[in-house]
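Lesson 9: reading folded outputs for more than one chain in a single document. The general rule is that every protein is listed as its sequence immediately followed by its C-alpha cells, and records are never interleaved. Here is the first one.
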Amino acid sequence: MVDKGKMDQAKGKAKEAIGKVTGSDRMKAEGKTDQAKGKAKEAMGEVQERARGARDSLQDKRDRT
C-alpha cells in the first residue's frame, strides 16, 4: 500500500501542476485530493507493516516458550 500511496501522490502532484498551467481550479482540487488520499494510503500501509512486525515478534516469543 505504501507504493500505491506514493503513486497516488505523484498523480495528484501532476494533476495539480496541470491545473495550475491550464487555470483549472477543478484539476488543482483533484490533484490535492489525490495527494491526500495517497498520504492516507501510505500511512495505512505503514501501520499495517508495523502491526505485522509486532504480531510476528509476539508469535516468535510464543514459539520459543
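And here is the second record, again sequence then C-alpha cells.
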Amino acid sequence: MTLRSVLLLLLPLASLGQKTVSPGSPDINTSRLTPGKSLYTVYYVNGDNWTKKGTTVYDMTISGTEMKLVADYKDENEKWYRTRTSIADAKTLSPLSYKSEGLRVNLDLKFGTSITGKYHYIAENKDDQVLFKPAAKFVDFNVADLLFTTLPLDVGYKAIIPEFYYTKSPDSILTNYIIKDVKSYMYRSPKTGNHESWMVGVLEESTGAVYAYVIDKKDHRLWQRVMPVGGGVTEICVNEELDYQPIKSRFDKERTLQQLEKGNSVIVGTAFARDHIQGGRAVMNLKKAQYAPMGTVVSILPNSEYLEEWKAVNKKIRKGKKLPEVPIDPNVSGCIKTTTVYDDKGHFEFTNLMPGEYILMTTFGYTHQYSYKYYAGTSYLMNQSGAVLSANDVYNTADAATGATAAIEDKVTIKKDGDKVDVNLKDVK
C-alpha cells in the first residue's frame, strides 16, 4: 500500500460527507473575480516580531474563455524570485497549463487527460520529462487562493477541494484542501478601515498544515493568508490594496525636479520668529526678531495639484475620525531641496528655480526673552483713624526667558524666469 493510500484511510472523520468542489462545480462562481494586480507583503511572524520576507504580486487577466494568473514573488533583497503562471478555464477554473520560473529550476506543464511537460535544471542544462495521469479532477494549487474567493462562503460552510501540486511521485501529486470552518470576521485595513469578512480555516491534507484565509464579504478580495512555516513561525501575506487611490492627481517627480534645477530665478529670505506669552499678562519682547540660528535647514518643494489634494483629503479624513490618513507619495521626499541659514540674521538663498509656486519650510529653536508685569499686592490710603480711603493694585516688572520652537511653512510664487523674490519666513504667535 502506498503512503498516499494510507493518508486517504486516515482522512479525518469530520471530512466525511463533505461535498467536493472541483473545476465545473456550481459552487465556483468566477464572476466574483476582479481582474487586475494585487500586491501582498509577505511577513514571517514570531510572537510580536514581524519580519518582512518579500512581496508577491498577483496579476490576473481574463481573455475570452481563458483566465491567466501570474504570481510573482521576490524576496526582501530582490536576490531570489519565483514566477508562477497558471492558465485555466475562465468559468470552471479547470487547469490548462502551468509554468514555474526560478533561479535553479523551471517547470512547464500542460493539463489534459494526462499531465505532460518538463522539469528543467538550469545549472546542468538538463531536462526531466513529466508524464502523469491524475485519477480525478483538480484545481492547480497556484489558483487555489483565487478559487476560495469564488465560493458561496457562509457560516459553517465546508468543502473538499482536490488540488494538484507537482512532485516527482505520481502517488502524491493530488491532495485535498479541506475547508474546516468559516466564521464572520472584522478585518481592519490600515488604509480603508474595517471590512466585514470571512475567516476561512483550511486544512492541507498531505501536510496537516492549517491555513487561514480572510476574504471580504462584499467584494470577495483576499485580505490575508496565514500559514505555518515551522519552528513557531507563521507566514502572513497582507493585501496592500493597490486599488486604493483616494488622491486622483499623480505626483510628477521628473517635472518637480526640473522646477528646482532648470530655471534662472532665485529666492532670498529671512527666517525669524516673534511670539507673545498668553494669559492676560502685559508682555513686551526684549528682541524684535528671534532669528533662525546659523546652520538652520530651510527646505523648498514645488507645489502641485497632487500636494494640494493630498492635504485636502487628509484634512477631511481627520475631521471624520474614522480612517487612517493617506501616506504621501514616497517620491516627494526625493524632490525636497534644502539650504541652510548662512549668518546670524536668519538669511538663506535658493537658486536655479523655474517659475511656479513653492512651499518653504523650516523649524528651529530659540530663546524667547521678554519683560512682563505681575501683581505684587495692594496699596491702601488710610486716614488717621485707620479708615481706608482708597485701594490700588501694585504691579512690578520682571524679565524672563523660555525655550520656544518656531515651525514655519509658507508659499512663495515666482512669476517669470529670472525673477528674484525676497521673502520673510516668520512665525508670529
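What the second record shows: Residues 56 and 286 are 61 Å apart (CA to CA).
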